[in-house]
Amino acid sequence: xxxxxxxxxxxxxxxxxxxxxxxxxxxxxxxxxxxxxxxxxxxxxxxxxxxxxxxxxxxxxxxxxxxxxxxxxxxxxxxxxxxxxxxxxxxxxxxxxxxxxxxxxxxxxxxxxxxx
Amino acid sequence: xxxxxxxxxxxxxxxxxxxxxxxxxxxxxxxxxxxxxxxxxxxxxxxxxxxxxxxxxxxxxxxxxxxxxxxxxxxxxxxxxxxxxxxxxxxxxxxxxxxxxxxxxxxxxx
Lengths: 116, 110
Fold this sequence. Notes:
heterodimer, A: 116 residues, mainly beta, four-stranded antiparallel β-sheet, globular
């Protein structure tokens, strides 16, 4: 089946620095990828949708200059958290679509970001 | 996409069937019912989906009422590894991102 690899699984960074999270589709081409954020004991909240070769579409309330998304190829999307602050600490999850909606979407294993 | 309502939590004894209900009374004719689950600190995992007929795969069965206003996910023989949050999502086939509600936290006990 479709596999999405997300790295790193955990990262700790200092306040004010930037962190990049990678999301790769290993055995399929993902025309669309989604980025979610999840706070403790809360549900997943969609941050943005990215399509290969075009600018990402951000959900209301998500700062596009703070959460930079790049989807340069059909197998790789990256999320960069710029000038991270403690309130950005969260669980970030990516998801990829093969376009075959019958099987839903495949999710990465998530990245636990802790900003100190 | 139609909104769903699920009980916040449920318990199930290991080896027994776990029946997780979902209400989607405003579902429209072209919307599918999808089920995902999220084990603690992992990404969501696809379980099953259906339109109007009952569906079964190696993980679970999905029972959709005739009026399609509700559905039940059945895990026939729950194991401890089935402890997770289960999300019922209704969306069109060509819809974009999945919108997650609060889900049902299922605890399978020995």
